[in-house]
Amino acid sequence: MSRLEDEQKSLVRRRLAGVILLATAALPLVHAAIVLPLTAVEQAKISLVMLGAALLASRFQLLRPMIIFLSCFASMRYFYWRIAWTINLDSTVDATASVLLLAAETYGVLILFLGYFQSLEVRPRPAPSRRTAWRVDVLVPTYNESEAIVRRTIIGALAMSYPHKRVYVLDDARRPEIEAMARSLGCEYVTRPDNRHAKAGNLNHALALIDGELIAIFDADHVPVRGFLDTTVGFFEDPRVALVQTAQHFFNPDPFERNLGLTGRIPPEQSFFYHVVQPGNDFWNSAFFCGSCAVLRRSALDAIGGFRTRTVTEDAHTSLELHARGYRSAYLRLPLAAGLATETLAAHVKQRMRWARGMAQVLRVDCPLFKRGLTPAQRLNYFNAMLHFFFGIPRLIMILAPLTFLFAGAHPIKADALAVVAYILPHIGLSTIANSMIGRQYRHSFWASVYEVSIAPFTAGVTLLALVNPRLGRFDVTAKGTTLDRARFDFETSRVTLALLLLSVAALAVAFPVRLFLFSTNRSDPSELDAIVMNSLWALGNLVVLVAATCVAYEQPQQRAAPRIRRRHPCAIVLGEERIAGRTWDLSESGLRVVLAHPGPVPHECRVSIEDESGRRCDAAVRRVRCDWNPSGQVEAAFAFTAIDDATHRALVELIFSGDQSWSAENYPPDRLARSFWYLLTTVWRVMRPRVARTEQSPRLTGEWRAWYAGLECRCLWLSGDGALVELPAGAPGPAEQGTLRVEIDSNRFVEARATSAGSNEDGGRRIVLRLQWPDFAEMREWWMNVHSLYPTASMVAGWRRLARMR
Fold first, then answer.
1. pLDDT grade for 348, boundaries at 50, 70 and 90
2. pTM to 2 decimal places
3. Dist. CA 346–CA 327, nearest whole Å
4. 177-214: b or e for each residue (b if 16 or more CB lie within 10 Å)?
5. What is the Cα–Cα distance from 790 to 785, expressed in whole angstroms?
6. How far apart are CA 457 and CA 353, in angstroms?
7. Is residue 596 a contact partner of residue 602, using CB atoms and an 8 Å limit?
8. How far, in Å, CA of 394 to CA of 448, rounded?
9. Catalytic site residues?
10. Which residues contact 191 (CB under 8 A, 6 or more apart)?
11. Secondary structure class of 180 (helix, strand, coil)
């Protein structure tokens, strides 16, 4: 930790202290403004002014504190109004619904204010230079991960450029194949006779066997970049630093991105934590250990007795103890390693249940609010991290509250419709704007609700049980590397969400009309109509979120065991003496996509030679999967590797994962309220849209040319390196099984090729697909290039777009 950073933090703290003193002095005025009685119309006017000012100010990031202040003010005024004027105690049913709803809203306001405090200052931290040659032991704990996943991580760990390191595989499943693989790659293999205390016990067992001054930990699916240790160990020049945590990155889409068709459109669920929450924690010296992609000081671990074993979240609990002992942490918002996100909703739910149980256990057995040694800021930030996982019960209450009125006539809020809108609109609207500015491109509006509703039924139970009996539950390893052959709906995981969805549909389709009918026939109090409309609109809003949360359970096919990752490396497609230049578009351990430097076909079987900016190379045999135009009018070819030995696989893994800038280019569009809401509304359309696999084997040139096949005049509608589509004239006899295809590409310019008929395509048998015959690839490529040289590029791109629309 540099002296300059300490001075900067001290300056911000002094400013914060000044703000607190100023706020304290202004408290009487603020209190008066919060409790000021206004009519519903007057409150509505003030609400519109605040929302308008916030929308204008949201264009300027520097005005974020002003929007946060307005949000806090509006929320406090709403909360005061709710407590003072809207609690309904008219009957037992009303009182129960009203008190539960108020408790859920209290939780939401508390989390909101703690989040504002936590993200007060989110500033990237530079990596300091290294002066000491620390000895580093790199630990890779594993239990049930596949050999392929563990091998990938070990290769990345061994490829790290830091010279003073030793790599250990800690196999808690005691598998002979993992031992053999570890020995063959050149790292140490460690196991133990039992699995006591799960991952924490595995790490503590290793501590007794190693003697490095620093310990780097990577989960079995997290592959570090080459410069991971070079970038992180410099922080330990400050003897107070015990932990350096880096941002975790996931190179495959999570279930929300993949199943909802949002990959690349919205950020992954965990991006907000690693790019906003943890940097905010870092400002307060409360960034905590996340179990992987981190370096710890051995002497600090020894001082606290090793990794904590009383809870299933040994990582956060260990860092809590380190901070309580006066040690410092540093958080580097750089993705210096990448791992596998959960592939299915079931695996995602299982992982989040473990996190929720563990955080609730820590809150129960070692509550940060009362733990000696922590600063006030650390207490609040750790408390916020643990309290967050209790969202399940408040979420369920917020969904059920309007249903209790529509089905049972309970009134959770005792107020007229205009007053409810006037007070709640700035509370929700301003917090949405403020959080959008805080999250920027790392969390999009409305989607946090979808994430939480999907797992709320599961976290609600485990957090309550952990508070009652923290010894309940066990450490469950999250399954990684799952594949699915076809789409399926996971009824088991989504049963509660589906039930809530059906209840909401029934409330709107049945209970709502019944309520309107009873109101019109009984001539009830006019305020009853307000309650019917407001609760129905509330249920409708919940329904939109429930639809998206339910659609997450519609698991889309996941047939690739090795996800493809975007990589831009120069490459060449090699067949004999022929070399076709290109650049990789994406890479995986099973295949790649290549964009050619110049249009043309590619061979069915060949070799691909790839080289990155550091000179690392990989040369492998491949088989063509498809080849076609891409939207930019370039030829794009996909290949599958056919034969890869251990040395080639190791070089390939390093090409994909080990570059220092491998993950720094990952970016997501900034949050836009309207666009985010549109994505939410169109969920069902995206999920149910059919996915058609592309299978073209050669780029097509489309047009309408005069042609002759086997002496019969016809029209040629497209040409490719291996085929053509011709349309015979009406009444023409059936095509010959084989013959010569002659096409007039331009005036008095012809191309010819031997062809065989592959059968009729469409249009009553008049359109015939022909397969072109070539003695070798060189002749076919020369023919195709000759055709392309006579063909306008603009027409080629237009043809691709026509084909794309047809698909």
1. very high
2. 0.87
3. 37
4. ebeebbeebebbbbbbeeeebbbbbbbbbbbeebebbb
5. 9
6. 10
7. yes
8. 14
9. 172, 315
10. 170, 171, 172, 174, 179
11. helix
